[in-house]
Amino acid sequence: WGVSFAPRFTQLGLSSALLFTLPLGFFIIWKYQKLPTFFATVISFAVPLWIVNSQLPLQLLLDGTFVFFLFIMATEPKTTPVIDTQEWLFGVLLGLSLALWFYFKLPFPDLLNLVVLSGAFSVFKWVKMRSLMVQSQ
CA–CA distance from 3 to each of 21, 98, 126, 130 (Å)? Predict the structure, then answer.
């Protein structure tokens, strides 16, 4: 989370760590085909906040910590869904939960949203695999 403490570009207020985070994040998203998760999370996060606040949360979307969370953690290939429909659902739920968290300033951290959703999708995957194993016997 040290991205927030990196030196900032004075004119834009952007963290210099974005120079490393963005290329690495785009590489992960592209290599592991996590575009549905990325787009669903961004859209379902930005649109509700835009509707409520009458402006896009661009400063928040370009914040170093949020970019690291979105590009690296939310699209991590080992713990997030791999099927496109599940990726879209995961991204929408993550984006909406983050929007609610930011709007209502809820006491639990945004990382908890990711942990809970990843856990829920892992349990879903396990139950589905278990039921397929039972059916094949």
Answer: 9, 19, 34, 40
Question: Both tokens of residue 24?
Answer: 């690495």
Decide if 41 contacts 70 (C-beta within 8 A): yes
Please answer whether residues 6 and 64 qualify as being in contact, where contact means their C-beta atoms are separated by less than 8 angstroms.
Answer: yes
Angle at 30 between CA 23 and CA 7, to 5 degrees: 20
Token pair belonging to 20: 């490393």
Decide: pTM greater than 0.85: no
Burial of 135 (0-12, 13-18, 19+ CB in 10 A): exposed
Strand-pair partners of 15: 8
Model pLDDT for residues 64-109, shown as the tens digit of each residue: 778 888 888 888 888 888 888 889 999 999 999 988 888 888 776 6
